[in-house]
Design a protein that fits this description.
Layout lengths: L1 E4 L10 E4 L9 E10 L2 H8 L5 H5 L13 E8 L11 E5 L10 E5 L3 E4 L6 H5 L2 H13 L7 E5 L6 H10 L3 E6 L4 H6 L4 E4 L12 E6 L6 H7 E9 L6 H17 L2 E5 L6 H12 L7 E6 L3 H9 L6 E5 L2
Parallel strand pairs: 8-9, 8-11, 9-10, 11-12, 12-13, 14-15
Antiparallel strand pairs: 1-2, 3-4, 3-6, 3-15, 4-5, 5-7
Helix pairs in contact: 4-5
């Protein structure tokens, strides 16, 4: 099968399209023929080994996992003899998590893993762009104990996590303010945001509004500015970041101090998902309460260009890879 493979860390050009063995499902596994996948932050950070700690997870000098791709949608090709939930021909969407493997024509994953029937009202490319952003937003909003009537600010509201954070916060009954650039204001409003702030023209922390939750999806809200606009004891959720060890250490220290003093509850880390989360997202999608945003579509042969765009820091929604 064809796959985008990288054998060394570095820029997008380290990715090569090559032939690799087609996976064979174990008794409890499902083999999926991938029709669409995405390039998300997890992919380009793994490719760059950014932050450096990734090298301790995926190989100090060379990557152990050579095929990236954290989410996908496709059709079940075959199933192991113990599988009962799926059958050949089923349209599905899912994620292999940090095992990756989505930037290829086929992927295997366990029947009880992050795999579910594709939402009936979505195409494969739309469904492929749900799990990374949707699961991340859902995990951290729950972690921040979002409640109806609260004021929530989403910084980076037009990105792959931000578009879902806005919609899910609205689903939970919050009053949502989205921060984005001028070009994306209308799109963020269309997702249901009650207010939008153009960060190129206005500092959200000087607008006089105080929030119960500030959810930063890109690591650019600024700790001091966020504390200024956050209710005392509120949640400051940091999903994105520069990846630099110094910044990570600084966030940990300031977060610990804010928690000790009662100034804020700081949350950061990696989202965890369970299959029930897929069912929730699928239900909201089919009810018309959740949608994805796709900015660009590429072929697998254009994977390096897709990585360059995703890594640029100004993409709108998702970057999708289509496989014929």
């Amino acid at each position: 099968m064809k796959a985008a493979v990288y054998t060394r860390y570095g820029p997008p050009d380290v990715l090569e399209i090559t032939d690799v063995p087609k996976p064979v499902p174990n008794d409890n596994e499902v083999l999926v023929r991938i029709h669409a996948t995405t390039v998300c932050a997890a992919d380009w950070r793994m490719r760059k080994a950014d932050p450096f700690i990734i090298r301790f997870m995926n190989g100090l000098w060379r990557p152990k996992l050579k095929i990236l791709g954290a989410e996908f949608a496709g059709t079940v090709e075959s199933v192991g003899k113990a599988v009962t939930r799926f059958k050949a021909g089923d349209d599905v969407f899912g994620s292999n998590g940090f095992k990756f493997g989505g930037h290829a024509e086929y992927v295997c994953l366990a029947e009880d893993g992050l795999l579910a029937p594709k939402p009936a009202n979505m195409t494969h490319d739309e469904a492929a762009a749900v799990l990374f952003g949707g699961i991340s937003a859902l995990h951290f909003l729950r972690n921040a104990k979002v409640q109806a009537g609260q004021k929530v600010l989403v910084y980076g509201a037009s990105g792959s996590v931000g578009v879902f954070a806005v919609q899910l916060a609205k689903h939970f009954g919050a009053d949502v303010t989205g921060v984005c650039s001028t070009d994306n204001l209308d799109m963020v409003k269309s997702l249901g945001a009650d207010a939008v702030v153009d960060y190129t023209k206005q500092d959200f922390s000087s607008a006089g509004r105080v929030y119960d939750i500030i959810l930063d999806t890109v690591g650019k809200s600024g700790f001091s500015r966020s504390m200024k606009a956050l209710k005392r004891g509120g949640y400051y959720v940091l999903i994105g970041g520069s990846g630099r060890l110094a910044d990570i250490f600084s966030d940990l220290v300031r977060g610990l101090w804010a928690s000790i003093t009662g100034r804020a509850k700081v949350r950061l880390g990696v989202a965890r998902a369970v299959p029930a989360d897929l069912s929730l997202l699928k239900g909201l999608i089919e009810a018309g309460k959740l949608r994805t945003v796709i900015e660009r579509r590429y072929s697998l042969d254009e994977i390096a260009a897709a990585h360059r765009h995703a890594e640029g820091g100004h993409k709108k929604g998702h970057v999708v890879i289509l496989l014929p």
